[in-house]
Amino acid sequence: MSGSEHLVSPMISERPCDVHRLRADFPLLHRRVRGKALVYLDNAATSQKPLAVLDALDRYYRMENANIHRGLHYLSEVATKAYEDAREKIRRFIHATDVREIVFVRGATEGINLVAGTYGRKNVKAGDEVLISAMEHHSNIVPWQILCEEKNATLRIIPISDDGELIVEEFEKLISEKTKLVALAHVSNALGTVNPIKEMVAMAHARGVPVLIDGAQALPHLRVDVGELDCDFYVFSSHKMFGPTGIGVLYGKTKLLESMPPYQGGGDMIKSVTFEKTIYNDLPYKFEAGTPNIADGIGFGAAIDYLANLDWDAIQSYERELLLYATETVSNIKGIRIIGTAKEKAGVLSFVHESVHPHDIGTVLDQEGIAIRTGHHCAQPVMQRFNIPATARASFAFYNTREEVDALARGIQKVLEVFC
User: One fold for both 3-30+311-413 and 54-308?
Assistant: First the structure.
């Protein structure tokens, strides 16, 4: 059975996605690599940036550069407004109810570590359990291992099927009175699986257990409403959402964030300091010590503006069709096996060849100007689950085309000419 037979049929939008118009917004897509036209299929690692984001970064450094929150002069006021406007744009984009629920962090990884280091340390005790899945990125494994080791707690793992889907029935069985937190990927970076997060949050909440969602791979492809999901925490990174690196967001319900101690100490997370006592700042600043990543926060706001103005029905329909086409095309190449054949997927096509190592696939494709990712994708337990050392991973964005999929297939054929 080919991998494409497991995929849900693409939904058809009445409004087609004008991919060539969208590509014009991304300068880097038009460069040449090793004498070939670039085919960029590494979007799950980081996405390219539209002109609107590049212009926002340039404008800040050229015209608005100043520290924020503490200055009374004009430049500080302008920069502060742009930075805080970005926070509000993000709140609207994920449908949070209060801007205080939007905490700027360096990325999804720091957001998870913040929750583990504050909520986790406060609430997880000896004998308790933290529940994650077998498809998590290392960023949603290691912080919980550290916490469990420190607290003498236990990390429990939700198994996945041969298709790369979470076994929801096993998840429900694993939740117990010992479970203090569930932490799950919305979309798997290694498999592309879209997990039934709303259903799983409801199951956990029925037992009084809060849920953190790693949304780093979801927000580039899905419309997310944190209120509808009812998750307690949701983390994501700008650089996978067509924004700058080094900035991301932890969303948390106000009541939970207010109950958590600060993550770091320093400037801007305080109201007052004496040698006898420090009074911490209000949300979200209690978790934002020191001079923030101002330029990239503003750039993230520009990326959110760009995304908010897209036709998401057309884009989601187009991405489903493109992934289905890529799955059919690649799985029809002799010796190729798709890793991750869930019914609901987004943006990721991981594959192996029966006689060629993924690193060799990636090296030959690079010579053809085709950028994919090879290795374990910071998801070594996934590789162990499928008894493989690594995969070759092509990951897509709305600016990728069928022609690029065809170039990928031709590149793989060239790999086979070299090694087979």
Answer: no
Give Cα 69 to chain centroid, integer Å: 29
Q: Exactly one of 17, 148, 378, 420 is catalytic; name it.
A: 378
List, in sequence order, the alpha helices (H) in 45-154.
Answer: 51-59, 74-94, 108-115, 121-123, 142-151
User: What pLDDT, in 10s, does the model give residues 44-67?
Assistant: 999 999 999 999 999 999 999 999
Residue 6 per-residue DSSP state:
G
Q: Above 90 in pLDDT, residue 7?
A: no
Domain residue ranges in the chain: 3-30+311-413, 54-308
Give CATH for domain 3-30+311-413: 3.90.1150.10
Q: Which of 254, 145, 131 is nearest to 203 (CA)?
A: 131
Q: Which of 339, 323, 345 is nearest to 405 (CA)?
A: 323
Q: Give the Cα separation of 27 and 296 in Å (integer).
A: 19
Q: In whole angstroms, give the CA distance from residue 337 to residue 65.
A: 51
Q: How confident is the model at residue 16 (pLDDT cuts 50, 70, 90)?
A: confident
420 a catalytic residue: no
At 238-261, the pLDDT tens digits run 999 999 999 999 999 999 999 999
Three-class SS of residue 392?
A: strand
Q: How far apart are CA 258 and CA 283, in angstroms?
A: 7
- pTM exceeds cut of 0.85: yes
Nearest to 350 by CA among 366, 339, 341, 342: 339
The stretches of 207-356 forming alpha helices (DSSP H) are: 226-229, 254-259, 294-308, 312-331
54-308 sits in which CATH class? alpha beta
Helix (H) or strand (E) segment spanning residue 131 = strand 129-133
Confidence class for position 14, pLDDT limits 50, 70, 90: low
Q: What is the mean pLDDT of the chain?
A: 94
For 331, residues 6+ apart whose C-beta sits below 8 A from its C-beta are 2, 3, 4, 337, 338, 351
**pLDDT tens-digit readout, 168-182:** 999 999 999 999 999
Tokens, residue 401: 């085309």
Length of the chain: 420
| Whether 78 contacts 294, CB under 8 Å | no
Report whether 103 contacts 293 (CB < 8 A): no
From 405, 409, 387, select the one nearest 395 (Cα to Cα): 405
